Amino acid sequence: MKLEKSFLLAIISLIVLSNISIVFASAQPIVTLNPVAPYPQSSVTVTADVTGIEATHVYIIVQECNGKTGICYPDEQNASMTQKTTNTYETTMTLKHNDATYIQYTLVVENNEGWTKYLNLTKAYLSEKPSDNGESSDTPGFEFIGLGFSIMFISFILYKRRR
Fold first, then answer.
1. pLDDT mean values, one per 10 residues, the chain (163 residues)
2. 86 and 121 Cβ atoms separated by less than 8 Å
3. What is the spatial distance between Cα 49 and Cα 81, in angstroms, rounded to a whole number?
4. Within 13 A of 66's CA, how many CA atoms are on the CB side?
5. How many of the other CB atoms lie within 10 Å of CB of 50?
């Protein structure tokens, strides 16, 4: 009899705990960046899929950071997102700092119950900005070696002709 009560109590506890975990497992929005790894000081389109969340307004807070120095810039961008479909919101923003190596963002959703933060300080790494100084990536100085050999060869030919 005691064994049956213990077994029954264990089953009831398992059912209650599984129901609690289902209640706490709420929908999480999905944020995508286009391009996935933008360059510093470039434009990036942010799309948020808020399926399962009754959203009336969606905002995204973006902060640029430099991972080499460990500094995040204090001028956060708080962008309102435009509703594209029933569950999809989108905005385009321009990153401000040339030496930023990653961004961190927080999605803020307003619904009938108030404001809720999702994906708090989620990191997205930036691509390194390509060199645009107009120089080639060849090692400088090697073209002077060819020029030196050419001058020596021409000098040798002129020397032989004079003799």
1. 56 55 61 90 92 89 91 91 92 92 92 87 85 57 73 80 75
2. no
3. 11
4. 11
5. 23
Neighbouring residues of 30: CB distance < 8 A, sequence distance ≥ 6: 48, 49, 51
pLDDT of residue 95: 93
pLDDT number for residue 44 = 93
CA gap 33, 144 in Å, rounded? 46
User: Do 62 and 105 form a contact (C-beta atoms < 8 A)?
Assistant: yes
The distance from CA 10 to its chain's CA centroid, rounded to whole angstroms, is: 46
Residue spans of the domains in the chain: they are 27-125
- CATH class entry, domain 27-125: mainly beta
